[in-house]
Every structure is written in structure tokens, then in C-alpha cells.
Amino acid sequence: MSGYLRSKSHLQRASLLVLTLVFSFLFNNVTSAQDGKALFQTNCASCHNPIKDATGPALQGKSKEVPSKEWLYNWVHNSAAVIASGDKYANDLYNKWNKTAMTAFPNLTTQEIDAIIKYVDEYKAPGGPTTDGQKTSEPEKDNTWLYTIATLVLALLVFILARVNKTLNKVANDKEGLETKKEVPLLRSKLFIAIAGILILSFAGYWIVNGSINMGRQENYMPKQPVFYSHKVHAGINQINCLYCHAGAEKSRQAMIPSANVCMNCHKQINEYTGTEKLITYEGKEVNGTEEIHKLYAYAGWDPVKKEYKRDAAGKIQSSPIEWVKIHNLPDHVYFNHSQHVAVGKVQCQSCHGPIQEMDEVHQFAPLSMGWCVNCHRQTEVQFKDNNYYNIFQKYHDEIKEGKRTGVTEAELGGTECQKCHY
Amino acid sequence: MAHKQYWKGLEELENTPEHQQIVENEFQRDLPVLDMSDKLLNATTPRRDFLKFLGFSTLAATIAASCEMPVRKAIPYAIKPDAELLTPGVPNYYASTFVDNGEYCSVLVKTRDGRPIMIEGNNSSSITQGGTSARVIAATLSLYDKTRLRQPRANGKAVDTFEAVDTPIAAALSSAGGAVYIVTGSMLSPTSKEVINRFVAKYPNAKHIQYDPVSYSGMLLANEASYGKRALPSYNFEKAETVFSLGADFLGTWLSPTEFATGFMKTRKIKSSDAKNVKMSKHYQVEGMMSMTGANADERATCKPSEYGKVAEALYRAITTGAAPSLPSAKLNSLIKAAAADLKKGNGLVVCGSNDVNLQIVINAINNAIGANGTTVNWAATANYKQGLDADMVAFVNAMNAGQVGAVFIHGVNPAYDYYDAKKFADGLKKVKLSVSFNDRLDETTQLTNYAVPDHHWLESWGDAEPKTGYYSFIQPTIAPLFKTRAFQDSLLKWSGASETYHDIYNQYWIAKLGGQANFDKALQDGVAEPATAPLAGASFSGNVEDAITKAKAKTGGKYEVVVYETVALGYGGAWSNNPWLQEMPDPITKATWDNYVCMSPKTAKEQFDAELTGINQVERNKKVLKVKVGANEVALPVVVVPGMHNDVVAVAVGYGRSKDVGPASINGKNAYPLVTFNGQTFDYANTASVEKTADVYAVAITQTHHSYEDRPIIQEFTLDEFKKNPRALMESRKEELDHYAHPHWMGHHEENKDADLDEKAFEKNATMYPVHEKPGIHWGMSIDLNSCTGCGACVIACQAENNVSVVGKHEVLKSQEMSWVRIDRYFSGDPNDPDSIQTVFQPMMCQHCDNAPCENVCPVSATNHSSEGLNQMAYNRCIGTKYCANNCPYKVRRFNWFDFNGADSFKDNLYTDGQRDDINDDLTRMVLNPDVTVRSRGVMEKCSFCVQRLQDAKLTAKKEGTPIKDHHITTACQKACGGDCFTFGNVNDPESEIYKQRYVDNKERVFYVLEQLHVLPNVNYLSKIRNTNMIVAGSDKNEMAKQHI
Question: What pTM did the predictor assign?
Fold first, then answer.
């Protein structure tokens, strides 16, 4: 493989570097060491708020209250160990928070922890309602109907003028005693019938074939969901990692819709919608975000006043699952595996799901047709040299070495064969 | 030779006109549409009507198509269990234990999204060593059985709460005059015994008896007499060099067949690379009927069961005194002589299937004489598989009839069906005031009891087993109980007034026994806790052998004798009778499905009972019905001829002819238990019988010649001596046949090297005008060792469970339309009139994934085509059902969905129903379907896919690990199921893989491909059968017809 790298031009190496950087940027939980906000949101936000007590304490200013920086690093890396060491401050803290253990983050570097502290300490509560960007521009007036009427009037005019012209001609001919050619009505003209026939057949055929091919496809399908959950707010504005909720995407054929208790990891503390972005449904109705959060509470069995789960006599949480409407439906004879694409193929969610971070309500972005799948398999190069699995394809490795090819597409590995997806 | 070498049935052997006609037709019976709608086909359709139909159907199709897509819901958990425990779409495996009335198998249960869908063998167990059986795998289907009881019942009515049964039972118990009996099957669970002991302690007049529907009392009592232990030893088939079986079907049904088959097959493995030093066990079988074990024997002779005593004596004398045997047949004499010589060499083992105490004492004496105790017979770890004493059961039934019993609790057994005198049991039960059944369904016994308090299915419960003393095995639940059932231990505890639950006792017991929670957790995870080193010890034999010989010999026979036997599929009956997978699994020997019947030798059937309807019995599916009578009891069943049966012996299987409440699949056939007798000490399963003709006929669905090869050479078989002398014989004959095509003369001179192997690559390339397609990364291949296949059918059921293969029902099997993807072809050779001459070969047959597949070229829509990994792919949704592929397949392994068997069609009422197999389409039963495999709808072809879903999953795992794919990533369902390691599967391109080694290093001299000369280039190879005998009956003549066909 090193031989392969050496044979590369500088340009290719540079682009490779850029690509690697982009991927590592996209797929590392730890994005950039300096980005305290992102780090906070990825690692801490499910339990902590900078200025409000949540599952864990409000963090602003806490870095100055703790015994030392070193202590804080140890605490974040493994709080249980600090408590076990008999540290007094740690044990007090632990007891104060009802012995709720904090998750260990052994992978966070000290710089990263500093970045988080910096972000938390500088954090300001979102200010009052801003008026910027609130101007709802009048929808542009649609002039189509005007043009239609004008066209129709003009067409009528042409028709009348033609008839007038013909009548005048006939009158003139009569006057001069010339015989007028007998007019064959247009509808009986053989040429017209032939042309019209062919045209109708072609259009009908096209329409029927297209219609039947599209049968069962649901591109742009955007059903109404039981809870107005905005991907824009969560994945877009708040930058929550897709895999936080859709944890199955890396492990399973199903990406997994998160259960209500996953939502509650954050929404135990976030009980109102304070975003500046208005939530507008497809029909144009404005949605009250706080009400939607309370719908979640009803499903999850959370009492927002007492801040605890409602339990029945046996201590079971009184929750019920949210019955989401499934948007991406594949026929039963199609096998699709998320982890193959996400974990192995390193395909971004957006490649198939579209700009999900901009969607308030999710719609089906791609046609999910076989042609669409196969096209991608034909064009996409697999992670050929980064994954030792592909060592078994000696032939392609040799060809790359010899410079006969630069990469291997999924199709060349058999990715367009029937039983890759149908079994 | 005028006769063919190998034949599946007599009709093939005789090649009768009827048979020829059948093999020539692609579809052996009328097309299903013909018998459905004669009217439709005969109707005259005027032009106007035709146009009307056309218009209507176009319109209907348009309307149907323009309907909106249904709204589908995606419902996540409300509160998801621990992420590490459960990821939707990713299977979890739990170690557990299959226990069924003493039958034992350690297993791994695959659950998907909380429901068990597949059972595989557990390699951690030193007893079953990863082996399974058809029944073990089929247990998932029994879990989802629609006829299971869904709630308790009191006095014939279902009740909603346990209080409704607990209160009256507790009251009745306290006032029950007379004895209290708990009747169970052989119980392997130490904690359940503990619970029963507590119950007995609470009610001192209570008694626990164990009852085995198919009993081994004879052995228990014989061992008590010989060794002073009323127990069964462990049998080390793995160490045996010579095995002599007297009527014991130890590979199929006897005692612990999974364990024995897995162990014994290890002694049958052969590497041709080391042919000179090859060692292989020798297996002698003497029996009356044709059992699966007999079919696998190296040397086999038949005798009447009443002569077993004489045979045992002859063997004993031959071993101890060297006396020459003088038995009724010459073959028997020579066999006994040879067996005695071999057994004396050491590491011998003699087993006997009889339930006669004296006969078993003689067998003990033989084992003692050959020094088997402490080598192949291990008394250090006694086996607990069977503990029931027949006399206990008889005494209990007598006590009931005498009115001495106040209460009866029945768990897991069904005497009203399987007791030899079921009527007496039923009459007695009526006199008992309180009768409670814990059985899972309204079986024959539960119908008679006052209360039914159904126990959980074992896949729903906690439990344990001690199959051998000191070997522990654990059951853990793999699904929450589906119905309102309760662990029977909890019921007993409740009624004995205990405050503890069974789970408390279970935990305490094992934590104490294993020394801590951590050990217990590990044992649960492994499924077993076993001694670090296997203990081995003999026992000292004492007893009056001569007395036993005299008594064993004294048994008198009759003109005909009937053997009552268990089938490999259904066993003793129980819940298995209503398992459609097992009902449709062809019997290893008769290849019959859905019925029991009278097995009879061809000669007797022809000469004495005129039981050949068209000259050759097998072509005609209607069989003559015979009446078999033992004492006053008789059963009337159709006759099925079985080569290898003793001419004076008939055999009838148990497990059939059940009550309709047991389930719709179980009602075919007749109950054969009334043919069992009680000799005052033990039950007798072989008795003198009279056999009479009747005027009736009855159709039996037999699959044996549904897929005929028309006498093309399929099997390669050698004796061990032949093989040692010239291991390359097969390779040479392949080379002789194919070299001409590998190096055609127009390609120039080819240096002939006599010692070179067949140049497979050159044959692949030069024997065709088409280009060779590359397999750049993976090239899947399978190797099947004919030496390791016992014909048990575990692979058939595993395939069915893994691949959602449909059950089609008896009516469709009769039309040759069974769907199984892998079938086991059973070939006989020898003279059908001489049962002692019959040799049998089993050959698993499935899609051979030909690299130059004849099916692929003829598909007009390319629905079947080839992958770059060598898979013959089948795209169901492209298939338009021309069936050209099936017609063109030389192996006859493609299956067509004539009907909607599984509810996969869009139209709800399109389902095929026949009144017997229909439960398979219930919403409950469909939970057993594998969600990774498409359920096929009507009108498409299907066949073995090499478990492509597992291959894809294996590749994905390897990719995630970032390692090249290796053997440990992949097992196919059939491979995993097989205890004999018959199947090897893997990537042939990888020289480190087992399949590569089998084909090109270790066993290359034994490799052959079926119908290789057609240049279809199969990806499945077979390893030749090596039989440890003097002669292969089929001979070695070159087959004439095979040449004509090329």
C-alpha cells in the first residue's frame, strides 16, 4: 500500500489528505480540540446545562469551585475512581446529586476539557426575543392565471381572425367567380389522425411505463408525525450527532428510531422551546415547540412539574411508545443494511437522506429506486486500501500498483449483483 | 450387471414403464390448476367475452395499482432495554439446553428483536459437542405452536387467573384421600427434583415416579443386576474402534443419539493424504427392521427380534470361548465371527436396543468380556437420560384403578396416548379425585384431567439439567412467556405452601453449588459447567450370565414379529406430532412424510400380501392397507416396502394418529403404542404379531424418487481396503474421463504424466467454448463428506428454519411439490429380496451452484444468474415462473411455489390451505420466520442460496473488523446443524481455508463432483464414501447408461 502511495502525484496526495481530513472531521466524536461548544454538545449536553441544574449540576463557574484543575481532569476522565479514592469533595458532590454517577470520558484530552470549560464559562443565556429575520415576506404573487387568460384570448383572436380571413377570401372568390376548394374538416384529415394517433400512443405509453415504474415509490413523501420533531432544530441548529439518536446506523441494518427515554436524556432539562427559529409546518401553520416537548413527556411518562417519571403501583414507568409514521419504505424483498453503508462504506447520512439538518419535517429525499441504488454502487469507490478486508482482491491491488486503476468501485466488487440486496 | 448400481426405490431398480414415464415428465402429477378448475379450462370463450375479461382485468389492475401506499408505522421502544443487550436488527445468542423427556442437547438460541428464531448446537458442551438433531432445531416452531394452551383450565373450561385453579387444587390436595402421585418423564433437572422433594415433604403420602414412553427399564435393571447400580453408563462412541449394535438405533433414536452420532462420526473421518495409515472404526449391526443406524453400518445382518437372545449368546460365546456361532443365516454367523474377532482387539463397544433385562445382562457380560468397561463404557459419569421403571408406572395405574390414588400431577408425559394400555390408564384416572396436567396442550391425557396448569415452553423458562453425573447444563429464557403459563415448579411450590419462587431456589442452589454468582453467571453464559477433566472408570461385573442367556434365549417368536419404533423426526410423539417441519421431513429410510405405515420387506409384501398395485409398489401412491395384530390390539396401516427389512419382521412407528386437539398436523396415521406389551417386568417393543390383508388402500406421500437421476453415476464408494491400496482410484477415473476435454487434441500435444492430478483448471477452461468468469475475491465452495452423513435430517430442518422454506402439506408432497432446499438422497444397493445384502448411502443434495449453470442460460428474464463469488443467484422478484430452470437442472434442486404457502402474496385469501399445515400461516407461528430472508410468494422459483444472508453478514462483520474473511466468520445453517461435520464451507480462493485444504490438500483423492462430466462446474464437491467392509455390493462396473447420456 505504501508503494501505491509513493506512486501518487502530489496533487493526488494532497487531495487524499484533504479527503482524509474531511472524513476524520465528520466521523470523529471529538471534532476539533478547540471547539468547546461542539464538545459540550456531543459529550455533556445530555446531562448538563451551563446555567441550569439538570441531571447534573449547572457547570458555569464550577471550574473555579473545584479543588484543582488536575482534580477536574481526573473527575471527567473517571469520576468513579475519584469517588472511590475517598476524595471528600468528590464524595460530597456525589451524595448531593443522589449518587448519580457521571459517565467517564477517558478519551477527552486536557485541552478539550479546557475548551469545554471556556465555552461553559463564557456561555450567556439566549437573549430576549430578537426581531431580526422575523419579517415574513409576502409570498410572491402568482401571475400564471393572468398569462393563461391572455394566451387563451390571443388564441381565440387568432382563430377568429383566421375564420374571418377565410370567409373574406371565400366572399372575394365568389365575387370574382373563382371556385373555392372544398375544405376537409381538420378532424377527418388522415394526416392529422395519423400524427395525433402516434402522439397519443407515445404519450400514453410513456405515461403508463413511467407510472408503473414509479408504482410504490414515495419520493418527497412527508407524512404528518405524532410529534412535530424538527431535525433542523436538533441536528442543524444544535448540532446533535446523528448517531446519538440513531445509534443502530453503525451496528445494525436498522438505523433505529430512538426510544422516548433517549429523548428524555436531554429533555429532562430542556422543557421549553426557546429557539429563535419559528417552527412552521408544511401547511404553513406555526407550531408551539414547548407543546411538542410536552407531548413527548406524555409518551415518556414524565411529570414535568415533579420532575420525575410517573410510575404505576409496580414501579413501572407509565410510558407508551411514539408511533412514528415510517417514511423510508423498502419492499420486503430488498435487504438494506445501514451499518454496511455508515460504518464500512463511510457514506454520509445526507447522501441518501438529503439535507436532513435543514428539514423541519422529514421527507423522503431520494427516490429509493433500484436504479438510484445501482447508480451509486457504480460510481462509488469503496475504502479499498484502508480496509484489510479487501486484501483478498489481489488482482485489483496489483492493478492499482501497476497504475491501471486508481480505485475500485462497489460495482467492480460485485455490488450490482442481484444477491447483494435480494435474498 | 443387469441391475443398476444404486437405486432410491424398487421402481428405479426395475426401471418399470411407469417409472420411466414419471421421470420423463417434468411435472409428475397434473398441474395444480387442472384439478382446481376444470370448468375454467373447458369453458368456451367467445370473442366478446374475451374482450370483456380483458377490459375488466386492465381496469382492475389500474385501480389496484393506483391505490395509495399503505401508511406504515415505525414504533420504537418506549423505554429501550440496555443498549448493549439489544440492538434492533442484530441477533443475540443465548446458551440454553434442550431437554425433552430425558433427551438432552446443549444449544445456542438465536433471538432477533426478542424472539427466538433459530437453534444451533453449543460447542462448549463436551457431551453434544455442537451437534443437533432435527427435533432440537424444530423446537422454535413448537414454541410458536398455535395449539399450545394459552391459559389454565379448570374442569374443561379455560379460566383467566391462576387463583381460579390454585384455590380449588390446594383445597382438593388437603382433602385428597389416598396417595398423591407426581408423574413426570425422566427428569434431568436437579432443582426441579429439589422442588418435587419439597412437595413430597409437605405431603408425605406423595410419590414421584418417572415414566418413559419409550422405556429403557431393561437396561437400568440389568445394570443393577450386573453392577449394582440402577443407572446408565456413558458410552464413549468417540473412542470405539469396533461397535456392535444389536437393534439399537444409536445414531437416530437410541438414548442420546445427538451425543452418540457426534462422537461416533469422529471415528469415521478419513484423510486421503494419509491413506496408508488411515484408521476407521468398524460398525456391525444386527437388527430386525431397517433402522437409520443399520443403514450406516459397515456390516449388517438381520434376524427376528425374538432371536436377539441367540445372537447375543453367539457373540458372547464367540468372544469368551471362541465357539463358532450356529445362527439361522450364514451371513449372521460370519458377521458374529468377524465382530467377535474385532471386539477382542480392544476399544470395542456393544449396545442393544432391547428392553429385555436378561438380554441386557448378556450385553453387559459381553462388554465386560471385551474390556469395554472403563474405556468405551464409562461408569464414572453415569448418564441420567432415562430413569423410569416400567413396573412403577404399571403399579401406579393399578393403584388408580383400585381407587387408592387421591391426586395425580402429570408433567411432560402423556400416558393416555403412549401407555401400552391407555384405556386402563384413562379408566383409572377417572377414579382419581384431583388430576392436574402441566402439559403444553390439550393432549390425550390433559383432556382427561380436572385441571390444566400449563408449564412454560423451555425457551421461555429458567431451568437446568444434569445429563450426566457432574455435568451441568443450564436453561435460560429467550423470550417472555407468550401465554398465561406458569413454571410447573412454581405451581408445585405454591400448592405446597412455599413462599419462595422457583427462581429463588434455582439461584440459591446454583450459586451455592458453583461457588458464587460470578461462576454461575459464567456457567449461564457458557450454557454448561463441566468437570475440567472427564472422569473415566469401569465397574466390576458380577452376575449369573448363563441364567440370563437361558432366559434371553427362551423368548419365542412367531411367523411375523412387529417392531414398534420411534422415527428420527418425531421420536416418541409428544408435542412433536404437531410440528409441520418434522411431519414433512422425509424419514431417513422410507422417505415417507406425514404418516406412519407398516414397513415390510419387498419380498414379503410381494409374495405374501400381494401389496404391489402396479407391479411396482412405489410408483403408485396408494398403498394396500394391512392389519397388524398383537394380542387383542390391532392397527390398520398402509404397507411401505423397505429393502433391508427382515422378511418376517414388520415395523410401525409411534407418534402418529393423535387426537385433533393435539393439533391439525398430528392426526394422520394410527397410534402404534397399543402394539407394545408388558412382560411383568418391562415393556416389550417387539412382539409376535399376525398380519392380515384388508381391502382398503391409502395414499402415502413418499419423496424417494421424486428427483430421479435416471441412473447417472452419482455415488462414489470404496471399501477401506480398496482405498488404502489405491487411494488415487477415484482421481484416476476422473482423469481418464475428463482429461480428454481438459487437453483436447486440437490444442496441441499434452505431456501425459500418469502421476499428475486431474487438471481441473484446464478442464474448466478448455472443455467449453464460453469464456471463464473470474472470481476475484471470494469463491464460495462446499465439500460434503459422504462418510460423515448419517441421514438424520438435522440439516434439512436447519435449512427450513433458516431460510423460511415452506411446508406444503401431504397433498402437495404427493404431487412431488415439496419445497425443501436440501434433501437427503438415500441410495440402496444390493438385492432387494435379500435383506442382508442391502447397503445404503446417504447423500445430501442441494443447489450445486454451478459456475457454468444450465439453469442460468435458459431463464428468459435472467432471474437466475451468477455472482462474482460463484453463487447461483435467484432474484425472486424478477422470476416470472417459466420453470425452464427447474427443467434444465441436472440435480433437480429447484423448487417452484405453486401456491401462496406462506401468506407472502398481496391478496389475503390467496393462501393455500389443506386443513393440516395451515397453522404455519398463523400470525403467531410466523414469528418463527427469519426476518433476513424474503418469504417467497406464489409463482416464483427458489432453491438453496448457500445461506447468502449469512455470507453477507459474515462479509460485513469482516469488513467492520477490517480483516480478510476467514472460516470462523461463516457457517451455513446445514453446516452448523450437522454434528458429524459432514459439511465444509468457505472461500476456495483462500489457501488457508478448510475447504481449500479438503479439496486440494488433505482429501483431494476423495473429491468428486456429481455429474462433473457435464461441465456444469459445480461449487459443491463430495468426498467418496469409504465403507469398512469387504465388498461394495454395487460393484465397480462402469455404468453403461451414464455414457449414453453425455
Answer: 0.85
